[in-house]
């Protein structure tokens, strides 16, 4: 099995991540519209330093966006995953789990206490991955999104990062 290395994204990853985002977009994991061709991946609020990427055999195979949950000082101990994608060719190689483990270590290294994320209720593969990485359901917003004519729950999951396990 190939080795998955995790690193912070670089500005030069923009084109690869933008193309991957468009190609792998699906209603299973995304609420907004599919990104348009030529749209950059990085912008003023989506900076390279906010993303971890898995690299397999020298090729970027996905991303995880990791940012403070809010800008409030009283909430500075909480970080949030705001997007995780593993390219189709990198699935099954452990890239998703490696990204989550790296996110936990990154938040722990920054003095964080909690890591949260939101996932669409019908995204069973992602929910299983998060549960295996120690995340638990902390809340559900029933029928929060209308996707392709059906209502979908928004599920909040979280875990402590300042404890082992």
Indicate the topology.
Elements: E1 4-8, H1 14-24, E2 51-56, E3 59-60, E4 62-68, E5 78-86, H2 95-109, E6 114-120, H3 124-132, E7 136-147, E8 150-160
Parallel strand pairs: 5-6
Antiparallel strand pairs: 1-2, 2-3, 2-4, 4-5, 6-8, 7-8
Brief sketch in words of this structure:
With 165 residues, the chain is an alpha+beta fold.
Can you walk me through this structure?
- The protein is of the alpha+beta class and 165 residues long.
- Helix content is 21%, strand content 36%.
- The protein has three helices and eight strands.
- The chain has helices at 14-24, 95-109, 124-132, and strands at residues 4-8, 51-56, 59-60, 62-68, 78-86, 114-120, 136-147, 150-160.
- Strands 1, 2, 3, 4, 5, 6, 7 and 8 form an eight-stranded mixed beta sheet that branches.
- The longest helix is centred in the middle third of the chain and has 15 residues, at 95-109.
- The chain is globular, with a radius of gyration of 16 Å.
- The chain starts with a strand and ends in a 5-residue tail after the last strand.
- The mean pLDDT is 95.
State the total count of DSSP E strands: 8
Low-confidence stretches: none
Q: What structural category arises from helix and sheet content?
A: alpha+beta
Helix content: 10-25%
**Number of helices in the DSSP assignment:** 3
Distance between the termini: 25 Å
Strand content: 35-45%
What is the arithmetic mean of pLDDT?
Answer: 95
| Sheet with the most strands, sense and barrel status | 8 strands, mixed
Overall body shape: globular
The helix/strand order is EHEEEEHEHEE
* Rg from alpha-carbon coordinates: 16 Å
């Amino acid at each position: 099995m190939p080795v998955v290395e995790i690193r912070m994204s670089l500005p030069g990853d923009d084109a690869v991540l933008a193309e991957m985002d468009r190609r792998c977009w699906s209603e299973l994991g995304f609420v907004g519209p599919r990104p348009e061709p030529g749209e950059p991946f990085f912008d003023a609020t989506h900076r390279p330093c906010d993303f971890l990427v898995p690299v397999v055999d020298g090729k970027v195979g996905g991303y995880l966006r990791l940012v403070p949950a809010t800008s409030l000082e009283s909430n500075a101990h909480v970080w949030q995953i705001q997007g995780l994608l593993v390219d189709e060719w990198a699935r099954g190689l452990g890239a998703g789990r490696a990204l989550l483990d790296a996110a936990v270590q990154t938040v722990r290294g920054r003095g964080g206490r909690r890591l949260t994320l939101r996932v669409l209720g019908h995204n069973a593969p992602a929910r299983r991955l998060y549960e295996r990485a120690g995340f638990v359901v902390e809340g559900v917003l029933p029928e929060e999104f209308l996707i392709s004519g059906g209502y979908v729950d928004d599920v909040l999951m979280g875990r402590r990062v300042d404890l082992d396990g």
